[in-house]
Design a protein that fits this description.
By secondary structure, this protein is an alpha/beta fold. It has two domains: 8-130, Rossmann fold; 133-281 and 318-336, Dihydrodipicolinate Reductase, domain 2 (2-Layer Sandwich). The protein has twelve helices and 15 strands. Residues 9-128 form the Gfo/Idh/MocA-like oxidoreductase N-terminal domain.
Length: 339
């Protein structure tokens, strides 16, 4: 167990989109000390470290991962690399006695994911798959007060991405179901407290580059649960008016609505009508607080102050649901999820 009286030592693998966000949050934390970044783009890494005044941090190449893992000052590792590298880095970190905070997915296959969780259990170290929307303050409030709704009958999730992701990222993203919909699947199952029995999805590729990859960019998904509840997920890769994120939960006693967030909530009432500011433009802005609070939860787990909230079962089942939706889209029929 790490001492709660000193800063936790941190190593970050990968400084892409997510890794850069985590570097920012670690650098701003009074409770954490960034000791290493593992990144093959040395100049890119140095630019970020200079920006956040992390002069004490050492840059190591992926081939020198063991140098970081052998340092006893490192309490946990944040894995933010492409999916094909996750399994090796997660396993090595756990077997070196480090906690692991991993961007989804933990690994590319169910078997590999299970092996990672077994390593966490055998080494007595926390392994956290960061479905960070659970830590969004407004969605967390909805979750905490959901019992007021009585029997929940419907959950609607809208998740339209902005700006359009780089093509090079899309090629390694794992596809829209495992890259985007997994967040909404996890949130819907978390709110309902159960996993769906059957799922259905319809989708289309409006973007030619995405079509050439064999992927889709616009999805409508339906999840059917044992309780009778339904979840509907509406997803797009290309929302040009902003990062559209909404959640509606309907029950026998009423409805909760988690609306889009904006940098300013000021509303103008003028001669030509009502207007308000544009919603946040990207996931990094909209979920800024959820990234911070997910990290804070993990740090408490590293210190032994609380247990990891996102279970092995949730992580694996969400991936199974995404795969079933992908199969449904290809076959054009409802699919039973094989738990």
């Amino acid at each position: 167990m790490a001492s709660s009286e000193r800063k936790l030592g941190v190593g970050i693998c990968g400084l892409g989109r997510a890794g850069s966000i985590h570097l920012d949050n670690v650098a701003k934390s009074f409770d954490l000390q960034l000791l290493y970044v593992v990144e093959f783009r040395t100049e890119h890494a140095q630019t970020l470290l200079t920006k956040y005044h992390q002069d004490q941090c050492e840059i190591v190449s992926p081939s020198d991962l063991d140098k970081m893992l052998s340092d006893e000052r490192v309490d946990f590792v944040m894995v933010c690399t492409p999916t094909n590298l996750h399994e090796e880095q997660v396993l090595k970190s756990l077997n070196a006695g480090k906690g692991v905070f991993c961007e989804k997915p933990i690994a590319a296959t169910e078997e590999a994911t299970l092996n990672c969780y077994k390593a966490a259990e055998s080494n007595g170290k926390p392994l956290f798959c960061s479905f960070n929307r659970r830590y969004d303050p407004s969605l967390r409030k909805l979750y905490n007060e959901r019992s007021e709704l009585g029997q929940i009958q419907m959950v609607k999730m809208c998740a339209r991405d902005s700006p359009f992701p780089p093509i090079e990222y899309l090629k390694i993203s794992g596809g829209v179901f495992h890259d985007c919909l997994v967040h909404d699947i996890d949130a819907a199952c978390w709110i309902l407290g159960e996993f769906p029995k059957r799922v259905y999805a319809a989708a289309h590729a409006h973007n030619d580059a995405i079509k050439e990859m064999g992927d889709v960019d616009t999805v409508a998904a339906i999840l059917k649960f044992e309780s009778g509840a339904l979840a509907i997920i509406d997803t797009s890769r290309d929302s040009r008016y902003g990062y559209d994120q909404r959640c509606e939960v309907f029950g026998t006693n009423g409805m909760f609505l988690n609306q889009n967030q904006r940098p300013s909530n000021m509303i103008k009432e003028e001669l030509n009508g009502q207007s308000m500011g544009r919603m946040y433009n990207s996931f990094a802005d909209r979920y800024e607080l959820s990234y911070i609070q997910a990290l804070q939860h993990f740090c408490r787990a590293v210190k032994g102050e609380e247990s990891i909230e996102i279970s092995k079962e949730s992580t694996i089942n969400v991936s199974k649901i995404a795969t079933a939706l992908e199969e449904s889209c290809k076959k054009g029929c409802e699919i039973e999820v094989p738990y």
